[in-house]
Design goal:
By secondary structure, the chain is an alpha+beta fold. It has a 4-stranded mixed beta sheet. It has helices at about 10-30, 35-40, 50-70, 100-120, 135-155, 220-230, 240-250, 285-295, 305-310; strands at about 180, 185-190, 205-210, 210-215, 255-260, 265-270, 270-275, 310-315, 320, 365-375, 395-400, 415-420, 430, 435. It folds into 2 domains: about 5-155, dinb family like domain (Four Helix Bundle (Hemerythrin (Met), subunit A)), CATH 1.20.120; about 165-439, paralog of FGE (formylglycine-generating enzyme) (Alpha-Beta Complex), CATH 3.90.1580.10. It is built from 9 helices and 14 strands. Helix 1 packs parallel to helix 5, helix 3 packs parallel to helix 4 (about 100-120) and helix 3 (about 50-70) runs antiparallel to helix 5.
């Protein structure tokens, strides 16, 4: 009997929905500002928004029109301009990029042709077309660039351009501060999730000793206590590299924070506001997260610990897709998809908690882990080495769980993100852990 999740009509509808959702978000992010803001580089860490727009169209053309559909190239002369590995972000403003109107037209024309191909594609026969993988890959790619563009909007100076309702207020969380995750083996990664990317594969068994993990992400109030106790001025909490980095760049608080008398303020998408004490801390680098954990007498969880906390169901002795089970994320489960422009208060989304009672493992803030970004046993690059393989090594640390800026299509219990330990412009926070044998 055919699994209904892999029925051709169901897959076609899912692909259409995810591609349409991604394009609506891209349109919002590139239509809410005037042309000078689209062509400007708001930080050397980021591309001009117009580069992301045309790059989205170019990747869609290469993989869905050319590779899946077998069509001739529409604009082969621009492939090099929008090759992320050929041109570092700092160089992209000097390239002869498509102007905004032409970039929009190009992306729209590509999409129109892709929808024709989607109608006739058989979801089998090749690894690219099996279960609609290529369409899912491109939807995830666009959503990842939408997240990148949202980071650019946060870096952008000037008045507010984006608005969204705030998350619902919740009572102050009074549950336990940490939860015991029992030791033993669990299945990490996946071999069955149809749209999982190469670094999430294959599924394999991991043995994880018992440990305690924070029930919620570390909050702004908790991080302020670290600052007040001289955390940024006490060398013993920092790795040598972290200490050198914060000294060199005069870092004394999370990115976008500044002190005003007795209170901390932050700039968030063009608005200055008091830092909310009960929100998960945001815009901290790995070094800051690691230093806080040391100060608190704890540590960052390993990637395997994080995934076991997020996926292991002790009752069924199995790994689920998400902390709450196998159902796709819904609004009651997690803060995803740019539905809000901030994390929800710590302790939100009880319906999204794990069987052990850990909350907000998905959504709100990316969570730094202690682990380097490395391949799983049996890893095979697909469909190209530049997605994951070229980044493997100790230079990059793993982040897990997604953030409010991440769409559900690009966020799973197995999904892996990575970045340099100095990065703070990303929507990153963390939670801490300790080994079960620690006092």
């Amino acid at each position: 009997m055919t699994d209904p999740a892999f029925d051709a009509d169901t897959l076609r509808e899912r692909a259409l929905t995810t591609l349409t959702t991604a394009r609506a978000r891209t349109t919002l992010l590139t239509s809410c500002v005037e042309e000078p803001d689209l062509t400007a580089q708001h930080s050397p860490l980021m591309s001009p928004l117009v580069w992301d727009l045309a790059h989205i169209g170019n990747q869609e053309e290469m993989w869905l029109l050319r590779a899946v559909g077998g069509r001739e190239a529409m604009r082969p002369e621009i492939d090099g301009l929008y090759d992320a590995f050929e041109h570092p972000r700092a160089e992209r403003p000097s390239l002869p990029l498509l102007p905004p109107a032409e970039a929009r037209h190009y992306a729209s024309e590509v999409r129109g042709r892709v929808l024709d191909i989607l109608e006739s594609t058989a979801f089998h026969g090749t690894r690219l077309t099996e279960a609609g993988f290529a369409f899912g890959m491109i939807a995830q790619h666009e959503q990842q660039h939408d997240e990148t563009m949202l980071i650019t909007h946060q870096l952008r100076k000037g008045p507010q351009a984006l608005t969204a309702p705030d998350p619902d207020p919740v009572p102050l969380f009074t549950g336990p501060s940490e939860v015991l995750v029992p030791g033993g083996p669990f299945t990490m990664g996946t071999s069955t999730e149809p749209w999982a990317l190469d670094n999430e594969r294959p599924a394999h068994r991991r043995e994880v000793p018992a440990f305690y993990m924070d029930t919620t992400p570390v909050t702004n109030a908790a991080f302020q206590a670290f600052i007040a106790d001289g955390g940024y001025d006490t060398e013993r909490w920092w790795t040598p590299e972290g200490w050198a980095h914060i000294r060199q760049h005069s870092i004394h608080a999370p990115l976008y924070w500044h002190r005003d008398g007795k209170q901390w303020l932050r700039r968030r998408f063009g608005v200055t506001e008091v830092v909310p004490p009960d929100e998960p801390v945001l815009h901290v680098c790995w070094y800051e997260a690691d230093a806080y954990a040391r100060w608190a007498g704890r540590r960052l969880p390993t990637e395997a610990e994080w995934e076991k906390a997020a996926r292991h169901d002790p009752a069924g002795n199995r790994s689920t897709r998400y902390p709450w089970g196998d159902a796709d994320p819904a609004p009651e489960h997690a803060n995803l998809g740019q539905r809000h422009l901030r994390p929800a208060p710590a302790g939100s989304y009880p319906e999204g908690e794990s069987p052990l009672g850990i909350r907000q493992l998905i959504g709100d803030v990316w969570e730094w882990t202690a682990s380097d970004f490395l391949p799983y046993p049996g890893f095979q690059a697909f469909p190209y080495k530049e997605y994951s393989e070229v980044f493997f090594g100790p230079e990059h640390k793993v982040l897990r769980g997604g953030a409010f800026a991440v769409d559900a299509v690009a966020c799973r219990g197995t999904f892996r993100n990575w970045d340099y330990p100095i990065r703070r412009q990303i929507f990153s926070g963390f939670r801490t852990a300790r080994s079960a044998g620690d006092a």
